[in-house]
Amino acid sequence: MSKEKTMELINESMLTLMEFTRKNRGPIKGFRSRDLNILIYILMQENQEPVTMSQLAQNLKVTPAAASQIISGYEKNGWVKRVRSEEDRRTVTIQVTDDIREKILSKWKEHQNSLSCFLDELGEEDCENLYRILNKIIDFSRKNHIIDPIDQ
């Protein structure tokens, strides 16, 4: 296959994967895509350690004041709550409310089920090849600073 044909196939498959993800992950009624991405970030980070305002600002690449303004709006909507640290009263973390956590996790489960069906259709050998190729894409992207490395 020619390089040009391969590039066309990559472009088409990326658009297809984005549409697959968009349809299966969302939308959740009442949420813009950006809001959902921020809430998912907070929710996923909670498993490791609660998110501080400075961490959120750094992740969003905005000032702490701008991050605080975003979170204030989310608090008014009942999506998040600020929690003051017992050890250091100056430290405030952000947590997703139980209602929003349930909505996001429900949508995530639907998305994972659809993805599982897709992978079942591929079969074991194609899944292994896809895994290998996707890792190469991620490694290339990180090495060339196309995406930020994920903190582990």
Task: Present the secondary structure layout.
Layout: H1 3-25, H2 33-46, E1 51-52, H3 53-60, H4 64-77, E2 80-84, E3 92-96, H5 98-122, H6 124-143
Antiparallel strand pairs: 1-3, 2-3
Helix pairs in contact: 3-4
Whole-number mean pLDDT: 84
Q: Given the C-alpha coordinates, what overall shape results? A: elongated
SSE arrangement, N to C: HHEHHEEHH
Our count of domains comes out at 2
**How widely separated are the two ends?**
37 Å
> Could you estimate the helical fraction of the residues in percent?
55-70%
Question: What's the count of strands?
Answer: 3
Largest sheet: 3 strands, antiparallel
Task: State the strand order across the main sheet.
Answer: 1-3-2
Using only CA atoms, what is the Rg? 19 Å
Compute the number of helices.
Answer: 6
User: Structural class per helix/strand content?
Assistant: mainly alpha
Which segments are poorly predicted (pLDDT under 50) over 5 or more consecutive residues?
none
Describe the structure.
The protein is mainly alpha-helical. The chain has two domains: 1-30 and 98-152, no CATH class; 31-96, Arc Repressor Mutant, subunit A (Orthogonal Bundle), CATH 1.10.10. The protein has helices at 3-25, 33-46, 53-60, 64-77, 98-122, 124-143; strands at 51-52, 80-84, 92-96. Strands 1-3-2 form a three-stranded antiparallel sheet. A hairpin with a 7-residue loop joins β2 and β3. It starts with a helix and ends in a 9-residue tail after the last helix. 9% of the residues are buried.
